[in-house]
TrEMBL record:
GO terms for cellular component: chromosome. One of its GO terms (biological process) is chromosome segregation. Residues 33-45 have a biased composition (Basic and acidic residues). It comes from the Bacteria. PANTHER family: CHROMOSOME-PARTITIONING PROTEIN PARB-RELATED (PTHR33375). This is ParB N-terminal domain-containing protein. InterPro entries: Chromosome_partition/occlusion, ParB/Sulfiredoxin_sf, ParB_N. Residues 1-50 are annotated as: Disordered. Residues 96-191 form the ParB-like N-terminal domain. Keywords: Plasmid.
Amino acid sequence: MSKRRVFDIDFPTEPNTPSEPKSVPAETAVQKPDQRMRKPSESRRGPMATAISENADALRTRAEAEMKIRAENDRLAHEFVRLKKLGLVVDRIPIGRIGMQKLVRDRKEGRDPELDELKASIKSIGLSNPIRVEENEDGTYELIQGYRRMRAYLELLSETGDDIYSHIPAGLVAKGDSLQSLYRRMVDENLVRRDISFAEMAQLALRYAEDTGTGAETIEDAVNDLYASAGRQKRIYIRHFAQVLKAVGDALKHPEAIPRALGLDLKKRLEADAMNAQVLRDALARVKPQNEEAELEVLRSFAEGKRKNAPRTPAAPRAGVAKTTLRCTVPAGTVRCQARDGKIEMAMERDFSEIDRHKLEDAIAAFFAALEDPS
């Protein structure tokens, strides 16, 4: 019987612990450095495992990139909405797609003496201040601010036929603003930038109170909603003019020409007797004034308690009367001046009705004294 030879086998004490590496000749290590530096796990990974790992890395990188893109898109969307609410998102919109029916305008239809200046400015340098519109569901728009600018573009397109005036720069107002807020946008812009008469502001307040969508039940509510940015005294004047217009109705053809003092006198006279409103309407119907001056003469006579039986024939305007238009910069701002035969107008962004009457009289006296000064 042959004897079996027994061999000693050394097992590692820790599972998965590699045994002590055998010494390798220096020349072998030099010839194959990749075998010496390769990790055990890499040496055992097959082609399929490598492909799966690389694909997982690519998917993870792509997911991170998509997350960053979504975050950037969300940021840009919120920024767009913010700018749109401020009316800072501007586009060129066809004027034929802009309606002007949603809001009652605070400007009476008729010839605007400053519209020609605005048209000349647009032709020379373009429109510096875009209009503001609200987009409708059907892709059309509703004008919120910029009635005079729209009129200027419409007239320029009609007069020149140039397609450049068929599209107007417009700021897009975000949807969702209440009707009251939209009216306030229109009114506040004109209070600051345009010299609107008390009668025009009062007429808008009357129509605003009649609009069931505004929530204003009285004239006082309408004035407080629309002219919240105006001073207390100015709101009182607007209410007084609104009461005059409501009492007289359509009998007045040129209410925007009524000065503040005359409007207040008319309000007092109408309040003194409930029948006076009918007296004034009868006087206007009897005289049938043909222009602003003739109508103002009837109103003055009524305010003074006089009866007016026939209109005073106004002096015929002289043909070819020169007109001077200029702008003057003073410490308080820029004054727009227009001078013609028998009339001079000055307008600036300031509420002169709040100035003391005696101070106004002194200023007017100083103005004419300076005109007569020979030096």
